[in-house]
Amino acid sequence: MITRYGKWDGLDLDQFNLEQLLEKLSDFFLQSGFSQGGWSRRIQDPDQSLEALREAIRQLIRSGELLDETDLKALQDASGALDENKLDELVDALIQRLLEQGYLRATPDERGTPTPRPGQGRIEKDEGARIKFALTEKGMDFLGYKALSQLLGSLGRSYAGRHDTQHLSTGIEAFQSSKPYEFGDTLNLDVNATLLSAIQRHGLGVPLEVEYSDLMIHQSEYTSSCATVLMLDCSHSMILYGEDRFTPAKRVALALTHLIRTQYPGDTLKLVLFHDSAEEVPLGRLSQLTVGPYHTNTAEGLRLARRLLLAQRVDMRQIIMITDGKPSALTMEDGRIYKNSMGLDPMIMEATYREVAQCRRSNIAINTFMLADDPYLVNFIKRLTSIAQGKAYFTTVMTLGEYVMMDFLRRKQKKVR
What we know:
By secondary structure, this protein is an alpha/beta fold. It contains twelve helices and 16 strands.
């Protein structure tokens, strides 16, 4: 059976709000392999196949979240029930629109199913499970904007601004006062002040003699740049005990990415996952990340984050670490991974504290967000924070975004001495 994409007569797809559709599909695209069922220990790959996407959109339409009453009536048959043929035609047309507008990309799975091209016109249904969909950079940027708006909207804050400091510089943006030019300053010349200085010394005449001491330049507010590494714990515990803690953390990463890209273009944000080991992951892969492997190698995550931050020439460096467990793994000097699933192993803990101390000596701030409140974890975080002289928050998946964004914004308002 072949599904042909086309413009459905019952709805003007050119006027359809695709962003609203994408926002409502965010749970589908950001799912992290969480298996429902209480204390389940299963980790499953998120199903983002063509048929799964179709079913997600069908459910939105059936629930009345996507279409108004008039459009829903156009989908009904003579008996008043939804016409499944019309529903399928509309769903496929919406998917095609998402592809054409650049919000989604279709990719083959490991079996190598050919990728449908925008405008190709058809996808065979029996191969629907062999085509996977993922967010493009445009789609991720939109969801990041929505996540940021929701997180900061609950705080009643605006997210415009930069890293304000008490200092003045000679950059491009003019401040209200000028100063004499000094060697090394940006030659952002204040023409009026320069000419006035020359006139005051020599009087008004032609030619006007301008000397080195007459040069006056605009001052601007000095704004610092900040490099941030977001460390996400993707160990098995992030989806255990009947709670998905990893998906909310991914939403925060999307919000931070959008905030930095749009409001702080001089800043950088890198993503580090830590589990049995640690790895840097491109932000473009964020929506596809899942939980696993099992253990928590905090020391290796901090070591990698510190190396990434020290490679950047910026005024401020910080690590935002989101975790829910105590360190339970350590990378040995020979590259082997030492693991202790019980956690709080003395050798692992001391190696972690040493890495925290290295970050402090490198002037890297560590802000920790703990998604659990076990007494042993509280003591571990207290010592970590004491060594790092950073901040620690014990929060939940419901308030994680607010706490992360509040802390990030406060850091941006902190003066650089």
